[in-house]
Amino acid sequence: LNSFVDPYISLRADSQFLDEAGEKTLLVNPVLFTESAGIMKTIIDAEKTKLSVRVGGAVRENWNRRVEGIPIDGGVEGIAEFKQILGLLNASYNSKLTAYKAFFKSNAVEGQDDWKALDYKWENLLSFNLWKMLSLNLNLDLIFDKEQSENIQWREIMGLGFSYALY
Question: pTM (2 decimals)?
Fold first, then answer.
């Protein structure tokens, strides 16, 4: 809308590919569905640099086939996204910081208030185009969700990609 702030609506599904927690391995389990809406502001919109922030209300459903019922919570979500193209290195850097504060939870238990803590997720991706058809990706994600763990969880991934353009 090119106004001071713009509205946004978002639908997102996050999952892990294999769930080996039980006796039986499950594909694409658990799945966290997030629906959110609010306002966003693009702070930097240059040719090689972009920075945007958004804040809004969100509702999450945590679908886990190992547990009966689907817990639903709702609250406020804030997201900051940064993208930088590094031309001399033939690379790009993407960073996304998400914060979520729940205000209600459908299956809340008296005395267990970890779900009320602020959740953080910081995703970082550094991508290099090594040659015409070969790329290297380095990911580092930091996650704090007090319901899952008292400690910060982290994940690092290195991936090589091969691509060929037909046209």
Answer: 0.87
